Amino acid sequence: MTLDDLPPAGFHSKLALISAGGPFCDGYILGIIGIALPSIVRELHLTGVETGLVGAAALLGVLAGGMLGGAVSDRLGRRPLFTLNIAAFVVFSLLQGVGSSLLLLVSLRFLLGVAVGADYPIATSYVTEFMPRKLRGPVLSGLILAWWMGYTASYAVGYGLSFFPDMSWRIMLVSSAVPSLVLFCLRMGLPESPRWLVQQGRTEDARNVIRAHLKTDILPRAESQGQLSLLQIIRSPYRGTLMFVSAFWILQSAPGFAIHTLQAQLLHQYHVQNALLGSFCITGLTILGILPVTLGLINLVGRRLLLIGTFAISMAGLLLLGISPHPANWMIFSGFILYSISEAAGSGLQFVYPNELFPTAIRASAVGMACSFSRLGAALGTFLLPLGYARFGMQPMMLTAAGFMLAGLMISWIWAPETKNASLGEPPSLAEPSSSSICAS
């Protein structure tokens, strides 16, 4: 028996819940700007360029944080930053309350994004290295569920606060400090990853962690892959895997973050009355997409089919929005809801695939790189979307987003491997012979 085959234990449940707090806070921090943005635009008299910059600032921070957090975590361990980056959530969230200028607000959103980006590779690697095989997919996709719950919660809080005229957008942004502080307290005292300890040659430390928390003497084997720098990973045999993971993540995130961040603005462009309420309802329905994935759909249909199917359905929703220059309300809401639910389901693979495809020594670094590339696409999409619909209208923008989904569908069909039965550190079984050039070259 290996750690991959252990039965679920109480520690696995505890770790899953505490780890989920990070994505919850991430989603809250990134989501609250969407509901606060209309008030920010009015108070600070922002132009289209400035609006895009405020919306994209945190995503640019995620780009830097993913690279930095992953590399540091592979060198110093999962545990130190697992707690420290949440402290940054608290501090920078509170500082948003004193923001009185565009420059300060953008700077604080960027720094928050750095902390958020660092949490993605740290938390997901930490969870991956503790979870048995049967729990890995549901728990990692459950982190995405927690992200969407945090995102939805931010819209609920922001929409509720919008009824109180004295509650400014600053209060909305500061509110992310509350769940962050709770999480900071919960994460203190957790152990280091035993797989990382073994990879560092600290076998006795790993044995003590496993005995204390998993109640067994089974040790993970040391993997042959040693530590690599970010540049070495790009030049290594894992560069093809990194290309695949980054590509599907970028194609999901670029239109996804742009649409979700600017949801209220987009509904306003479509002349929908009470765009804030509409955006809250659409965002809330994303849970219907990711929940079945977490409850076992990811193991039932497999990673590959889930990725292909969600790209196809997302494309259908965006085409519904783009087929007419003046769509009826039922088309607007049907298109956004169909897209949001399927996009949320597909996003469940953003933490699963990269953590299952890379070995322990470079897992966090590779996940961080893929996350960073995806957030670069997301930041560009969020920055350019308001400029695009102002100049060209909504129809071309929705058709462009549908083109992203088509590209994702094609890439997934050709290169997506199946990893649901693979052990960590074990090469995945590739769906197509031609995939080997991407996933192992």
Automatic annotation (TrEMBL):
Keyword set includes Membrane: yes
Alphabetical list of Pfam families matching this protein: Sugar_tr
Membrane-crossing residue ranges in chain numbering: 15-41, 53-72, 84-104, 139-161, 167-186, 242-263, 275-298, 305-324, 330-353, 365-385, 397-416
Lineage of producing organism: Bacteria, Pseudomonadati, Pseudomonadota, Alphaproteobacteria, Acetobacterales
Subcellular location: Membrane
Organism encoding this protein: Gluconobacter thailandicus NBRC 3257
Record's protein name: Major facilitator superfamily protein
Principal location: membrane
All copies of domain Major facilitator superfamily (MFS) profile, residue ranges: 15-420
Classification via InterPro entries: MFS_dom, MFS_sugar_transport-like, MFS_Sugar_Transporters, MFS_trans_sf, Sugar_transporter_CS
